[in-house]
Amino acid sequence: MAGSFDVFRRNQRSALAALAIMAMIAFFVLPPFLQMGGGGGGGRDPVVVSWQGGELLESGVERAVAMRGVLNRFLMESAAASGRDPAQIGLLPDDERSVVRTAVLAREAEANGVVVSDAAINDFLGQWTNNLVRQEQFDQIIGRLRVGPMGVSQYDLFETLRTVLAAQSMQMLFQSGFAGDPPGWRWDYFRRLEQSATVEVVPVVVETLAANVAAPSEATLRAFFEQYKDDLPAARSAEPGFREPHRAKYEYLVAKTETFEAAAAKEVTDAQVAEYYEKNKTSLFRAKPAAEKPAAEKPAGEKPAGEKPAGEKPAAEKPAGEAQDAAPEAGKPVAPQAQEPAPQPAPDKGSDARRSRFSPVAFRQPAAAEASPAAAVAQEAAPSAAEKDGKQESSAAEKKAEGTETEKKAVPPADEAANFEPLEKVKDDIRKRLARQEADKRIDAIFSAIATDMTRYAEDFALWQAGGKDAGAAAPTPPNFDKIAATQGLEAGRSELVTADQAVAAGPLGGSFELVPDASSRFGIRQQRWIDMIFGQGAPTLRPVTSRDVEGNRSISWKTEDQPEFTPSFQSARADVERAWRIVEARSLARNKAEEIARQVGAGQTLAAAVATTPELKAEKVGPFTWLTQGTVPLGTPPSLSQPEGISMPGEEFMQAVFGLEPGNATVAFNEPRTVCYVIRLDGLEPPLEKLRTRFMEARDDQRRLAMVAQRETSRASAAWVEALEKRHAVTWHREPR
Questions:
Q1: Quick one: pLDDT at residue 434?
Q2: Do 543 and 597 have their domain in common?
């Protein structure tokens, strides 16, 4: 009797094909159908986010994020195939919140009649690749794309792209309302940049009034904790956060470059200085050319620069042949040769209303004339046969003349050997150069030995954790940083468990970096920040890391402990929860107290006089300061909110209050985290409005700075608009988006 597997063996090819089809159906088709049902909220695939008329389960969110990553890869590879640098391409954000926002914007676009047709996708891809990528190349790129073990269909890829283009179109429509911002807006931007204020302030610290708040009930505190337990604390946020941030411990050794260079300089000999001078004088120590004589002292008969000899015709009077042979002037463009007009594409008649496959329409084929731009250039550059015959006779003579000139240039004039800075003048500079080189060699050798010891310890520790720990073996001994520092002339240090922000604020190490090779970078290297090597996602412990700070000091460090962010229990966080709750509740008390002080400021009275009888309050003069400033940031960076000295984290509310006042009047405003309520009295504004209006009119031809402010305000308005859309569509996250 045949076994039960005989049937499978006879039909195994058909069975495997059917199994593959079922797997594809399960991966691509079932998740959307499962989400259409009404009972998708529980089990192992819960609802993650919902909105009016729809929802996404956990599997749906995962797939949407995966498809965003696939689309990013497709766009990068398509750009690379067209010759663009993938490193210069900005990727679409692929976090869950961004993906869902794109879907909401696409839905809004559809409601407003925005349709992304197949022809529109075709046009976008043509622009993205400059029409340099052919159909077969696109097919190869799509064939390499994967979501997990499965390939990606062309249809799914372009539906994802269609959603992104619809969302971007809707956002562009919104932002187009800000194009050509009205004069009133430009005047407001100009005031924020150019007018400065001097104020008198009295800070009312909210926490000093927290004790006056009645004690909360346990239920109130628990509800408050549940509301903010998954939020990370942020210094400038008005909302509390009880989730513990990522922290790390680290140890470090610092080599002070100045110390090592001073020690090395004592050992540099005069012979080494002289040898370095002889080897490098041609490239480093040439004497500066003598200053040109003033025009008045030039010998008679010597023509000033730019004056034409007598009898030479101006360019306009030269014969046609001479004018053509003359070289173009530096910096002036040469008129291009007449070219045949490029073939115009056929008019777009739009896409068929019915759903069709993308293959015939997704990619525009390059025109025949565009098939090989390199060939056309080569054809233009290639000389004709007649030109070759005409030039062959002169080539030998030209080469001979060139060779003679080269030989002449290779032999320097007899007096050029003396055209160098004297050794006595540059010997101190050479000594510093040699000392710096020797110091770097010594630090490299020390750090290399330390890194070897640290790596060996890390390996031994990993082996001990894997087996020796359970067997009762003693843990390996880590390198003694203090002993190494004392022996090698280094400075040792170690931290407690700190956040990345605390590490940066602790000293130069937090802002240090290392130069690492990077083939995709323009110069072949890039800066890698120390903070990323220690606190970055996946950064290992016990791995030696080298870096250098802005002063040139070099460091070697390693992370000894890593504590990922986590949500604490209510009991462990209870003290912080109650403190935060009291601060929030005390804000109204702080505002009331500040407003009471502001009411006491009469005509000509100062804040100092108003609080003279209240010892816990003190008035301070602040300013002058502008609303917005560019400070020392690089040119082209948008202006940012000013941070006047004496004001703790001012925000927009504070600036609006200051620049909305009349001189001598007082008002109140919180700082950005709402931890301090300021009583503000305006002393004065400079320059006055009339003078400021004159400046505004004089600067009307240079609107770059104002355009950057407008861009900043537009971005802020766009973000507020998207948030309003989410509220209107009732977007609700049932867990924190990742």
A1: 94
A2: no
The answer on pLDDT for 359 being more than 70 is no
Measured over the CA atoms of residue 223, residue 224, residue 225 and residue 230, the dihedral's sign is: positive
The answer to the question of residue 446 being in a domain is yes
Residue 621 lies in a domain: yes
Q: How far is CA 241 from CA 231, 460, 576, 614, 707, in A?
A: 4, 40, 10, 34, 36
Contact present, 238 and 612 (Cβ < 8 Å): no
Same structural domain for residues 510 and 589?
no
pTM: 0.56
Q: Which residues of 709-726 are buried (b: 16+ CB within 10 A; e: fewer)?
A: bbebbbeeeeeebbeebb
Name the nearest CA neighbour of 58 among 22, 96, 23.
96
Question: Is 221 contained in some domain?
Answer: yes
Query: Same structural domain for residues 167 and 52?
Result: yes
Give the pLDDT confidence score for residue 123 in this predicted structure.
84
| Token couple for 695 | 């400046």
As a whole number of angstroms, the distance between CA 561 and CA 496 comes to 9
At 14 the pLDDT is 53
Among 563, 587, 617, identify where a domain stops.
563
pLDDT mean over 526-549 = 91
* DSSP β-bridge partners for residue 422: none
Alpha-carbon distance of 313 to 632, in angstroms, equals: 52
Q: Are residues 82 and 202 in the same domain?
A: no
For residue 682, being part of any structural domain is answered with yes
Nearest to 68 by CA among 43, 35, 102: 102
Shared domain for 530 and 492, answered yes or no, is yes
How far apart are alpha carbons 626 and 644 in whole angstroms? Answer: 9
| Beta-carbon contacts of residue 535 (< 8 Å; ≥ 6 apart) | 246, 248, 500, 503
Tokens 């004069």, residue?
183
- Domain with 613, as residue range(s), is 196-238+574-686
The 3-state DSSP class for residue 245 equals coil
For residue range 187-233, list pLDDT tens digits in order.
777 888 888 999 999 999 999 999 999 999 999 999 999 999 999 99
Strand 554-563, strand 545-548: pairing? antiparallel
Say how many domains are in the chain. Answer: 3
In contact, 221 and 626? CB cutoff 8 Å: no
Last residue of some domain: 543, 563, 583?
563
Query: 202 near 617, Cβ under 8 Å?
Result: yes
Same domain, 168 and 212: no
Token pair 């009307």 is at which residue? 700
Residues belonging to the chain? 738
Signed CA dihedral, 511, 514, 515, 520: sign only: negative
Phi, psi of 146 (to 5 degrees): -140, 145
Same domain, 579 and 656: yes
Residue 704 pLDDT: 60
List pLDDT tens digits, range 444-457. Answer: 999 999 999 999 99
CB neighbours of 531 closer than 8 A, spacing ≥ 6? 500, 503, 504, 510, 511
Residue 587: what are its φ and ψ, rounded to 5°? -60, -40
Give the Å distances, CA to CA, from 20 to 66, 149, 286, 347, 496: 21, 12, 75, 43, 54
Please say whether the dihedral angle defined by the alpha carbons of residues 501, 502, 505 and 508, taken in this order, is positive or negative.
negative
- For residues 590 and 611, membership in a common domain is answered with yes
